[in-house]
Amino acid sequence: MKYSFMTDIEVLLAYEGIRTTKSRYCRLIDMKQWDELGSVFAPNAVADFSTEGNPIPLLEGRDIIVKVFKDLVHPAETVHQVHSAEIELISATEAKVISPMEDYVTFPEGSEHLSFHGYGYYYETFVAIDGQWYIQHTRLERLKFDVI
Predict the structure, then answer these.
(1) How many alpha carbons fall within 13 Å on the CB side of residue 97?
(2) Distance of alpha carbon 136 from alpha carbon 47, whole angstroms
(3) CB of 69 within 8 A of CB of 37?
């Protein structure tokens, strides 16, 4: 896709920066690196992870998003995977991204939370701030949710 506001090299660098940010998101959650997880989100990021049967309120702000992840997911073993993203650059500093995803989350025996294997898509807006790409808005839409 040709963009009038960026050179081909700038487009490729933006795509790679966005992909790297999303890959870090998955790794930091799975490795429980909560202090670093905030580094993938813009300061005023918004996350919508509410799904049928799992009504999580809208999360506003990088610190809140990280706290909810830490509080909810820390005791679980997790595997998050994202696959080839569709990236549409809106400007040199904003992109709309759709990423296929899969997650496998197992909570310890006796936990109040259900273990599951899920599939779906992330619908996201990324922003570049000082040359670094961040998740500005993320929404997870699940297609399949298997309790395990």
Answers:
(1) 31
(2) 8
(3) yes
pLDDT tens-place string over residues 118-133: 999 999 999 999 999 9
Hey, how many other C-beta atoms are within 10 angstroms of the C-beta on 71?
10
C-alpha separations of 148 from 29, 30, 68, 107 in Å: 20, 18, 22, 10
Do 126 and 91 form a contact (C-beta atoms < 8 A)?
no
- As a residue count, the chain comes to 148
Helix (H, G, I), strand (E, B) or coil at 35: helix
Amino acid at 79: V
- Work out the mean pLDDT of the chain and round it to a whole number: 94
Place of tokens 């996201």: 124
DSSP character string of 92-148: TTEEEEEEEEEEEEEPPTT-SSPPEEEEEEEEEEEEEETTEEEEEEEEEEEEEEEE-
Which DSSP state fits 113? S
